[in-house]
Each structure stands twice: as C-alpha cells, then as structure tokens.
Known about the structure:
- The chain is mainly beta.
- Helices cover 0% and strands 67% of the residues.
- It contains no helices and eight strands.
Amino acid sequence: MLQKMIGTTIRATFVSSGQTAVGITSELRDRDGTVVNTALATDSGNGHWFADHLLPNTPGTYLNRWVAAFNTSTYVEGQYVRAIAGDA
C-alpha cells in the first residue's frame, strides 16, 4: 500500500501488456466507494499510462481504480493509497 501525506499529489501508473487499450481512466475512491477524483490517463509511450490525483485533506484509505477497454473486454485494476496527516 502506498502511503502519502494528505493534500499531496500522487502519480498513478498503468501498464498495458501489448494490447491497445482505449478509454483509460483512473479514479480515486474513498472507503465508501464514492469517487473523490477522476482523471483521463496520459499516454507516456510504449504501453505506459499515468494519471495525477490530489489526495483529499482527510486522512484515510483510498482506492486508485483503473478502468481500460480492450476490444470487447473491460479491465479493472486497483491500488490502495493511505493518506496520513503529518508535518509538512
């Protein structure tokens, strides 16, 4: 699990393994499943994608959820991020 301070920006990454994906999005969800931030992925070349998210100012565990379409299939991947309070 990634751990970062509240109110900071995280860069989430997604790697497409040889297939061409379309409509790649990254969502940041709270523990109740509510979307708190969403971003279209940026293609950085060779199947690598990234999205920047600003963590909320509330400590807690968040889910970074990727959604990508490959032909007729939808791929979903997630990573937990813990936002903690601390000294700047």
